[in-house]
UniProtKB/TrEMBL annotation:
The keyword Magnesium does not apply. It comes from the Bacteria. It holds the Pfam family ADH_N. PANTHER family: ALCOHOL DEHYDROGENASE (ZN-DEPENDENT)-RELATED, ZINC-TYPE ALCOHOL DEHYDROGENASE-LIKE. This is Threonine dehydrogenase-like Zn-dependent dehydrogenase. Keywords: Metal-binding, Zinc. Residues 25-139 form the Alcohol dehydrogenase-like N-terminal domain.
Length: 336
């Protein structure tokens, strides 16, 4: 089989690898049919990652189950499934607590798309081994488009986690989103659908602002000085200077979720945050725990994640097209 391999800045190529095999009764083999780059993949391709190439890329996809071990009961060959980005067993204490990105049964940081916590390959591959199939794989609800939901492995479900639980406890909250990619746009859509009284989306990209406007958000090119008035804020830029501005726009006891990958150091206005009583969360996403809820929202028809898909591109064009600058391209393969 082939796996798409990151070899240098802005350069990826197909490389041959052995076909994965079911190694135990609880495993499965899947074939990705709709894959998309995570926002962090753009940083890796731009040369901002912290891992030297080469390595297999990709950790967002909808796939079709090809083969299962004898003990797998949650899926059968032929099912369309979401494959979560992190490797998790589903039965250890951390997994049972919902901390699936911190599974104690596998090495720390075990994931698809980067050789951290072992080499699990990438989801931009012809075939992928899933070691804990019943725990990891989530059937795609009938009627949902695999192209629209290719990001459910991470970005779409992460966006749900960033805002949905907070809106449940703070109905009608005012939401600030400062972003540079798909996560922020998904947040705008979800926040509007779940009853935010106001959503302000800040991004220098005019096309991104246009999409946010279609989701009912007010938009701005830059974050201007405003009163401390937002109840919930989401930062998804990967820039600490932007995060510092965001936390200063929160109302007393406001919540800030940072989804940016902060590869560079910076400073935060800790005294201001102390005086305001800010809650700041910067964390790897335990995505498997809330993929079902995020898919349920998508299936309800109240949201339109497909609007964020910028391009639909043939699977064979991955090496040439992935390094190009697109908001959220989805690469599709004929479902044999």
């Amino acid at each position: 089989m082939r796996e798409l391999t990151y070899v240098a800045k802005r350069t990826v190529e197909w490389r041959e690898a052995p076909d994965p095999e079911v190694r135990s009764a609880g495993e499965a083999i899947v074939a990705p049919v709709a894959v998309t780059p995570c926002d962090v993949d753009s940083s890796i391709l731009a040369g901002h990652g912290f891992i030297d190439p080469p390595f297999a890329l990709g950790h967002e996809c909808v796939a079709r189950v090809v083969e299962t071990g004898d003990a797998v009961t949650a899926v059968i060959p032929g099912d369309l499934v979401v494959v979560p980005w992190s490797i998790n067993c589903g039965t250890c204490d951390r997994c049972r607590a919902g901390l699936t990105a911190h599974c104690s049964a596998v090495p720390y940081m075990a994931m698809y798309g980067a050789p951290i916590g072992g080499n699990w390959g990438g989801l931009f591959s012809d075939l992928v081994r899933v070691p804990y199939a019943d725990a990891m794989l989530v059937p795609l609800p009938t009627g949902l488009d695999p192209v629209a939901m290719a990001a459910a492995s991470d970005n779409w479900s992460l966006a749900w986690r960033l805002v949905a639980p907070h809106l449940k406890t703070r109905p009608g909250a005012r939401v600030l989103v400062v972003a540079r990619g798909s996560i922020g746009l998904y947040v705008c859509d979800i926040a509007r659908a779940l009853g935010a009284s106001e959503v302000l989306y800040v991004d220098p990209d005019a096309e991104h602002r246009r999409i946010a406007g279609e989701f009912g958000a007010a938009t701005a090119e830059t974050l201007e000085p405003v009163p401390q008035s937002f109840d919930i804020a989401v930062e998804a830029t990967g820039r600490v200077d932007q995060l510092a501005l965001v936390v200063q726009r929160l109302a007393p006891e406001g919540i800030c979720e940072s989804a940016g990958n902060h590869f560079r150091p910076g400073e935060l206005p800790l005294l201001d945050m102390y005086l305001t009583g800010v809650t700041l969360r910067i964390a790897r996403d335990n995505v498997r725990a809330h993929i079902p809820d995020a898919l349920d929202l998508a299936a309800s028809g109240a949201v339109a994640p497909g609007r964020v898909v910028s391009n639909v591109i043939d699977w064979e064009d991955l090496p040439a097209a992935l390094p190009e600058k697109h908001l959220k391209p989805v690469f599709v393969r004929a479902d044999d």
